[in-house]
From TrEMBL:
Keywords: Calcium, Hydrolase, Metal-binding, Signal. Residues 1-28 form the signal peptide. This is N-acetylgalactosamine-4-sulfatase. The keyword Hydrolase applies. Belongs to the sulfatase family. Residues 42-352 form the Sulfatase N-terminal domain. InterPro entries: Alkaline_phosphatase_core_sf (IPR017850), Sulfatase (IPR050738), Sulfatase_CS (IPR024607), Sulfatase_N (IPR000917). It comes from the Bacteria. Pfam families: Sulfatase. CDD domains: ARS_like.
Length: 589
């Protein structure tokens, strides 16, 4: 099947035309300012699925997958058909939440402390909250598990979430496996009953009902961890696709069909409560497909690449919006180039929110396009990238995009209008276009990279979180054990946390190889056996012996306020690794 690229008006094809259309690169200060239009107060529900690609929906051409409720929502929505995100989870979420490039706000990886949103960035729920909305998140956050970067620290007044980047990852509650798990309910562990996606939607429906009863507008994000690996779903959903030779992963497809059923439940409740007309529902995904294509089997809407790729299959995703009371319904395609970082300025415009002071958005309000008021819509250049390293590397896994062209990794050029599958590199035929787009990238890089040297810091000893529970998921300069299976296997690695000691005081620092929920001795399980535990922070370096039955090693030490690096070692003759789990508590100040 084709790539579902609609015919567009003629675009600049020459270097001179591109230069005239796009001009010099500048950060988009003021691009998100709302237009002069009477404010609206719709409720907003943002549905964000994980690792589901453009081709993982029946309405977008997949001949096998069953998504009738999403298909119906798509049919009645305004559809952004050339919509892009970063090729992986956390960077997409950072840009979505801030309206700014992920590299600018410090989130260019999914682990290694580079998935943590820096303090000081204004987020989407903060903007809604300041405008009188109730705000809630159900599911996946993946922008920090410690203060000051948890969802409840960044504008969400109601949260029910898992830890890390997925259920069963290292920061998540130990032993979670998608079924009957324990999740963090407003920061406190709470056992739940049922399948994870069902739990997120159940909680969202409760929240929506409560706000409707109170007559308060709400912003509700339902960010499913499905269909992210590991691929687990109630058997009846997997059975729908089992033994079908056209299905690359039956559980992956089943997880999407389960999401679809929950979307159907949500839409029915909106109808039943008379909320549909006044509610803006947005559906999108966070990157290209992870398991919808494998070994030549599956459907990717004719695109090249999957999750993590700089080709369109890695970052072009579905995004459609329905708001009957605001004129966004009935089914209409918008084929102009757009991206995740456009949604916050767009929502400020559509909902009549107070724009945050002093924030220079990289995104641009799409409200004129959504309202079909696009007469003078300008050409633009957008950049997405997949760094996934400690420090960003210029031209690494990146795409410079216009509506016609894609410059990949600074070298390959594709004419999307005539080659949507990106099968033919035409860089040699259009060197002038390559030159212009490289120049655009150079200007973008010079702008965004000014903030690459900053780090997000976990705050220790704050009133918001004491003790702080750190995990190796956030080690810098390491290949950390980022999921619980790696912890069980005893992966040998070490790194450090970037922290901020909130105030002078006496602190307890507890080192563990197993989490507190799994009371096993440090030397139980695979990996080198430790004879000594060591911790270093803020000029303090302490060691203690590890006994054969010790579950943890505890240090007490005064620490000065200020930024620091925290590192631990479990040392023995067989080798050394870091303590996977560390708890830091302010005892007295």
């Amino acid at each position: 099947m084709g790539c579902h690229v609609r015919a567009r008006r003629p675009l600049a094809a020459t270097a001179a035309g591109l230069a005239l259309a796009f001009g010099a690169w500048v950060s988009a200060e003021g691009a998100g300012e709302p237009s002069a239009r009477p404010p609206e107060r719709p409720n907003v529900i943002l549905i964000l699925t994980d690792d589901q690609g453009y081709g993982d929906l029946a309405c977008l051409g997949n001949p096998v997958i069953q998504t009738p409720n999403l298909d119906a929502l798509h049919a009645d929505s305004v559809r952004l058909t050339d919509f892009h995100v970063d090729p992986t989870c956390s960077p997409t979420r950072a840009a979505l939440m801030t309206g700014r490039y992920s590299g600018r706000v410090g989130v260019w990886h999914t682990i290694m402390g580079r998935s943590i949103l820096r303090e000081g960035e204004t987020t989407m729920p903060e903007v809604f909250s300041r405008s009188g909305y109730a705000t809630a998140l159900f599911g996946k956050w993946h922008l920090g598990d410690n203060a000051p970067s948890r969802p409840q620290d960044r504008g969400f007044s109601r949260t029910l979430v898992h830890g890390g980047g997925g259920v069963g990852q290292t920061p998540d509650v130990w032993g979670n496996d998608y079924f009957d798990d324990t999740y963090l309910d407003d920061g406190r562990p709470r056992p739940t009953v049922g399948y994870c996606t069902d739990v997120w939607f159940d909680a969202a429906l409760q929240f929506i009902g409560d706000q409707a009863d109170a007559g308060r507008p709400f912003f509700c994000e339902i960010a499913t961890n499905a269909p992210h690996a590991p691929y687990r779903v109630p058997e009846r959903y997997e059975a729908m696709y089992a033994n079908n030779p056209e299905v690359p992963n039956a559980a992956f497809y089943g997880m999407i069909t389960n999401i679809d059923e929950n979307v159907g439940r949500l839409l029915s409740v909106l109808d039943e409560r008379g909320l549909s007309r006044e509610t803006l529902v947005i559906f999108m995904t966070d990157n290209g497909t992870a398991a919808g294509v494998r070994g030549g089997v599956g459907f990717n809407a004719g695109m090249r690449g999957q999750k993590g790729s700089p080709y369109d299959g890695g970052h072009r995703v579905p995004c459609f919006l329905r708001w009957p009371g605001g004129g966004l319904s009935g089914g209409r395609d918008v084929d102009r180039l757009s991206a995740h970082l456009d949604l916050l300025p767009t929502l400020i415009d559509l909902c009549g929110l107070s724009p945050p002071e002093g924030v220079a958005f990289d995104g641009k309000s799409l409200a004129p396009l959504l309202r079909a008021e696009e007469a003078d819509w300008p050409e633009r250049v957008l950049v997405v990238e997949s760094q996934r390293v400690e420090n960003p590397i210029k031209y690494r896994q990146c795409a410079v995009m216009t509506e016609r062209w894609r410059l990949v990794n600074g070298a390959e050029l594709y004419d999307i209008e005539h080659d949507p599958g990106q099968s033919r590199d035409v860089a040699d035929e259009h060197p002038e276009v390559v030159s212009v787009l490289r120049d655009q990238y150079e200007r973008w890089w010079a702008d965004v990279s000014r903030e690459h040297g900053q780090v997000a810091r976990i705050v220790l000893g704050s009133d918001r979180e004491n003790p702080s529970r750190l995990t190796c998921h956030d080690w810098h300069e390491a290949d950390p054990p980022w999921n619980q299976s790696m912890i069980r296997q005893g992966k040998v690695a070490n790194g450090f946390w970037t922290v901020e000691v909130a105030r002078d005081g006496l602190y307890e620092i507890e080192l563990r190889r197993w989490p507190a929920e799994e009371p096993r001795p440090i030397n139980d399980g695979p990996g080198p056996k430790a004879e000594t535990a060591r911790v270093s922070i803020a000029g303090v370096d302490l060691s203690r012996p590890v006994g054969p039955e010790d579950l943890a090693v505890l240090f007490r030490t005064p620490l000065p306020a200020g930024p620091a690096r925290l590192q631990t070692w479990l040392e023995g003759p067989e080798g050394t690794r870091g303590a996977y789990f560390v708890s830091v508590r302010l005892v007295s100040d």
